[in-house]
Design goal:
- This protein is of the alpha+beta class.
- It has helices at residues 13-29, 33-40, 44-51, 59-69, 73-113, 167-196, 200-207; strands at 247-254, 257-264, 269-275, 282-287, 295-298, 305-306, 310-311, 318-323, 329-331.
- The protein has seven helices and nine strands, in the order H-H-H-H-H-H-H-E-E-E-E-E-E-E-E-E.
- 37% of the residues lie in helices and 14% in strands.
- The longest helix is centred in the first third of the chain and has 41 residues, at 73-113.
- The strands form two sheets. Strands 1, 2, 3, 6 and 7 form a five-stranded antiparallel β-sheet that branches. Strands 5-4-8-9 form a four-stranded antiparallel β-sheet, with no helix packed on it.
Length: 336
Amino acid sequence: MPRWKALPEELDPQVREFATQLRRLVDKSGLSIAAVADRTGYSKTSWERYLNGRLLAPKGAIVALAEVTGTNPLHLTTMWELSERAWSRSEMRHDMTMEAIRITQARDALGEFGGDGPGASRPGPGPGTGPRPAASGGWHGPESPATPPRPPAASPAPPAAPAAPGRGRRRTVIFVTALVGALLVIAGAVLLTDLGGGGDDTAKVAESPPAKPSPTASELPAGVKCAGDDCTGEDPELMGCGGEFAETATTAKVGTAVVEVRYSETCGVAWARITEAAPGDTVEISSTQGDDEPQTGTVNADKDAYTPMLAVPSAAAAEACATLTTGVEGCTTAGG
């Protein structure tokens, strides 16, 4: 049975060549994937993804592999940079396709609320009559559904001109935009009112440190795909928060297993990792300063596992716990 699976056919040629080169280095070193994982600090699952072309390895993993295999890192990082650009181009093409689909869906949705249907082309109220109620209870004619009915005309009025195609749609968009703007103004006024009060409440607001805003996509380092709450429930390796952007905050020994809190300041998240464990053992990460549900992971035949990420304000707010199949339980100490 061959050691390596066939690389995906849709893989970019530059990325395919890079993945093939990584496989050659591992073969030449004579190391198993588990050994490469132990010596580089990246999990076995991550290396399987890197070497099978399902995920582009982060630069830190490449530098670590070069050290382990005795390879000149300059050549390897140059190939990585070319592959990273090719990978980004592929993701951009995918994002553009998804954006086009979303735009089409949005247009179709607006069409359901716009004036393009049969009712939009009907004439307005006749002489001496008010607006006609439709069978569904709405009002036909050029008025927006949010506009109150006009009073009956004092004198006969000529039939209204048919509504221009798309007019109802534009009115709907304008109405929604105005409504959102009004809500933002109200929210701002309420916030300013709360902050403007005197007494102890004012002092408390002044004493509270401002929350650190999550970085925007343009502020994140290359390869990092999320930050804060957007990362909760996601895989740290897939989202680029592991490797060089993570560190072990706390560690605890639970039976024969080792439990760690892994923290990424760049992403503003933490996750739990368990090693030297047995299949069926579980590990969990939770926050001591939030109501988010804990994230869990289960050990398989690799004897290690890690949980999805959980947004936390700091490493001190994260706690990792393990439950072994032997019945032994234990946790790290939050904040230490």
